[in-house]
Amino acid sequence: MKTHIVVDRCSKLIHSVLATSLNVHDSQIIGDLFYGDDSCCYDDSAYTAQKSQIKEHAPAARDFTQKRRF
Predict the structure, then answer these.
(1) CA distances from 52 to 11, 22, 44 (A)
(2) In 20, 57, 62, 70, which residue has its Cα 20 to 30 A from 34's Cα atom?
(3) What is residue 69's DSSP assignment?
(4) Per-residue pLDDT, 53
(5) H or E element at residue 43
(6) CA–CA separation, 45 vs 68, rounded Å?
(7) How many angstroms separate the CA atoms of 58 and 52, rounded?
(8) What are 41-49's contacts with CB under 8 Å, separation 24+?
(9) Can you tell me the distance from the alpha carbon of 51 to that of 26, in angstroms, rounded to the nearest whole number?
């Protein structure tokens, strides 16, 4: 099981928690994580290839997705 947590960066309050099974790719739940008025997006490297979806669901958000290391 994976847990996805959305936290307000200023107040540090949790907005939502989403639990998925391991076979659900992170890109399939992006629409459930963003509210559209988000100003920043801090994600792990699983979201690196999802920049267009992040921009679609949170157009004003600055993307701070962790870069992949090779």
Answers:
(1) 27, 23, 16
(2) 70
(3) P
(4) 82
(5) none
(6) 5
(7) 10
(8) 41/65, 42/9, 42/66, 45/69
(9) 12
For residue 70, the model assigns a pLDDT of 61
**pLDDT profile of the chain (70 residues), mean per 10:** 85 88 87 77 76 81 75
Measured between alpha carbons, how far is 4 from 34 in angstroms, rounded to an integer? 11
- Residue 11 has a CB neighbour count (10 Å cut-off) of 8
41, 58 contact by CB (below 8 A)? yes
* Residue 50 CB neighbour total at 10 angstroms: 19
DSSP 8: -
| Number of other CB atoms surrounding residue 58 within 10 Å | 20
| DSSP state at residue 29 | G
Are 58 and 50 spatial neighbours (Cβ–Cβ below 8 Å)?
Answer: no
